[in-house]
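Q: I'm writing up a methods section and want to include an example of the input and output format. Could you take the sequence below and give the corresponding predicted structure tokens, formatted cleanly so I can copy it straight into the document?
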Amino acid sequence: MVNGMADIHNLHTLSAELLNKYNVNGPRYTSYPTALEFNQAFNNEEFEVAVGNSTSKNLSLYIHIPFCHSLCYYCGCNKIVTRHRHKADEYLDYLEKEISARAKLFAKHQVQQVHLGGGTPSYLSKLQFSRLVNKLKSAFAFKNEIEMSIEIDPREIEIDLLDHLKSLGFNRLSFGVQDVNLEVQEAINRVQDTDFLAQLLARAKELSFDSVNLDLIYGLPHQTETLFNNTLNKVIELNPDRISLFSYAHLPSRFAAQRKIKDHWLPSSNDKLKLMLNAIEFLTNQGYVAIGMDHFAKPNDELAIAQKQGELHRNFQGYTTQGECDLLGLGVSSISSVGNSFSQNYKQLREYYFAIDVYEDAIEKGLLLDRDDKIRGAVIKQLMCNFKLDKQHINTSLNIDFDAYFAEELAKLSPFIEDGLIDITNTEIVIKPQAKLLIRNIAMTFDAYMAKQLNQQRFSRVI
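A: Here is the clean output for your methods example:
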């Protein structure tokens, strides 16, 4: 982890030449293989077999709420912009059908984590929240101690929504801040009241929520070092438990709304890099521990503790402590990771509704993992979470000879060694502090699908 002035100094010693050399397109590795490898030959029958063969009896639920009140121009999420709240009632009708059908398959599982993402989950009314949570609790077996989290847009809610969420069992909140400066907010069509955000965090503290996260984005239009420092200082005043610091991926060819953001409004690649480095330095100086690539947490946070103990995990929601746990995605576009399978629901609402009506499941595509996928996935996860790899652990747990199995990949790591970014010994691979920003590049070396996908330009830049 990037923690303390020594690591910050190392980050700043990366030359512009090296940064430009390695600042290529690449995946974020919330899974391996990535979702681009999913295929439509995968079907519900294979999903049910994967559930039956899974060795885990712990379950994490992800529920996708696609609706938003307005369009944020930077957003690349699967969303539906509408002011017609009755559409959410119709969506819940179908979500309940999917929940009922899926719950039958997971009768032997216990739910230990629930996460609502989107879109904008806080689009739902209090009544709709109660309806959804009550359905989940009646359909699945919930553990007594459970993590329930939700992403919230602070613009379109009343402060007492937090009281209602707490009464339903939610104990973790994440607010989308992105940037507190009006010029930036107007350019991305997301103007919000920072004072009201402060009131929300104060109320969350009064209600004893376990954790509050704030999302920030660097590389947005009109962001300067001065303006982003203003955002960072305001965030420290708000005193969240966690902070997510994401890079804006400008892909207007894929996301139509991003065409409203003019290229000349964006920071240059060098200025964007400075925004990131300054933010990392600022947040670590304020006592936050850097988690993996883009998360920060207070030292007593469970993510920080898990990383220190080498027990951090990564899934489709990002970094997590819930590693040995099946993940069931519910709702349009949601992704599941169950047993030796990945699968994704239809991304279009009409297709999702049709599939639920006809089949009671909405799987559009997926993938069964073979032995090589599992081996490479384990290697990439160790690197992404711990910034080092224990060869013997891989050998023992996966019954391979690491050096022989990955002889070609180890040879491809030579440039990283020559550039002083990694060390490789007989027992381990260690990512040096100055190379932690380039962890995605290093992980890509072990990706058997990468050559094909890089030609399609489907990924954002790694920095």
